[in-house]
């Protein structure tokens, strides 16, 4: 009888904790959803409705619904505007950043886990320490080096474009967090698997390609998702590199700041529509990879 009462009491406590957790999550979701809903609703408002009813999430009447702001950044003066080019710039630079990140994380994490060399523990401690340093600290020195090299090389327009995007991609693709995430997963791989492969005569290249990489698929997908969202939404560094350049070279986020910097309610509507349009790739990627993302998070927490 006592055990039954204890079991009933513990079940009540767990049920109460679940209800509280659900309420907290619901409140957080509502708070985070309001800006997104406001941006979505404002993108369909007319200029007059934006001016008279800025506090409303959606247009005040059916007559105020319009697609004007979406056509405003896709077509201007009867011609296709720069938005498709900005999307292409963001897409190819994000894809290149993902490629650099995957190669860097796999190779570096493998070396720190499966290769024994002098100073390995010191490097790992330094990397953990470096994670505590805000990334914005390296922005000013990096931009100075970027400008000095560019002025010294005297490149043509095409070379300048590639040079700018090289500096945009490589620093973003060599972050420490994702690499340590991959290292954490490699530590969870049973040593017997690698040892048995070595006893069969497999070298590091075979172990890396046929054993380690296939096991790391879930974690790789998680890193790809992190890199995609981080690179796609990156603003400060691209804005520094692309300031004063041809507007056709801009990414979506940098171009969006140009809309928000304008005056008039028409610019507000266009900026909202641009923001909605720029979220579409992120939503698609998240919907496709959400299940694998959960598996990746679980796999990286097996061992510290």
Provide a concise account of the structure shown:
With about 300 residues, this protein is an all-alpha fold. About 75% of the residues lie in helices and about 0% in strands.
| Element string (H = helix, E = strand) | HHHEEHHHHHHHHHHH
Which value, in Å, is the CA radius of gyration? Answer: 25 Å
- End-to-end CA span: 42 Å
Assigned CATH superfamily of the largest domain: MetI-like
Low-confidence stretches: none
Task: Name the average pLDDT.
Answer: 82
CATH topology of the largest domain: MetI-like fold
Q: What percent of residues adopt helix (DSSP H or I)? A: over 70%
Instruction: Estimate nothing, just give the exact number of structural domains.
Output: 2
Strand order, main sheet: write it out.
1-2
Quick tags:
about 300 residues, 2 strands, about 75% helix, 14 helices, transport, 2 domains, MetI-like fold, transmembrane helix
Describe the structure.
One of its GO terms (cellular component) is plasma membrane. Residues 87-289 form the ABC transmembrane type-1 domain. Keywords: Cell membrane, Membrane, Transmembrane, Transmembrane helix, Transport. It is a single chain. With 304 residues, the chain is mainly alpha-helical. It has two domains: 2-75, no CATH class; 80-300, MetI-like fold. It is 77% helix and 1% strand. A hairpin with a 2-residue loop joins strand 1 (75-76) and strand 2 (79-80). The two termini are 42 Å apart.
């Amino acid at each position: 009888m006592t055990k039954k009462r204890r079991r009933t009491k513990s079940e009540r406590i767990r049920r109460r904790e679940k209800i509280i957790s659900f309420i907290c999550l619901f409140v957080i979701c509502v708070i985070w959803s309001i800006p997104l809903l406001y941006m979505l609703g404002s993108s369909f408002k007319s200029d007059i409705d934006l001016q008279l009813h800025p506090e409303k999430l959606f247009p005040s009447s059916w007559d105020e619904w319009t697609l004007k702001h979406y056509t405003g950044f896709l077509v201007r003066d009867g011609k296709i505007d720069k938005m498709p080019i900005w999307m292409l710039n963001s897409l190819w630079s994000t894809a290149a950043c993902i490629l650099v990140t995957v190669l860097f994380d796999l190779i570096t994490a493998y070396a720190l886990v499966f290769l024994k060399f002098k100073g390995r523990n010191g490097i790992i401690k330094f990397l953990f320490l470096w994670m505590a340093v805000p990334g914005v600290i390296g922005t000013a020195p990096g931009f100075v080096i970027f400008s000095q090299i560019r002025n010294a090389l005297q490149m043509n327009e095409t070379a300048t474009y590639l040079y700018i995007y090289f500096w945009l991609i490589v620093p973003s693709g060599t972050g420490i967090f994702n690499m340590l995430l991959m290292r954490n997963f490699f530590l969870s791989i049973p040593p017997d698997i690698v040892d048995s492969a070595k006893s069969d005569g497999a070298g590091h290249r075979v172990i890396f390609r046929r054993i380690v990489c296939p096991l790391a698929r879930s974690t790789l997908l998680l890193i790809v998702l992190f890199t995609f969202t981080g690179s796609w939404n990156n603003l400060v560094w691209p804005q520094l590199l692309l300031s004063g350049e041809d507007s056709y070279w801009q990414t979506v986020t940098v171009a969006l700041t140009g809309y928000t910097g304008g005056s008039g309610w028409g610019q507000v509507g266009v900026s909202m529509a641009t923001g909605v349009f720029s979220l579409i790739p992120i939503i698609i990627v998240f919907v496709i990879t959400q299940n694998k993302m959960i598996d990746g998070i679980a796999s990286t927490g097996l061992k510290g």
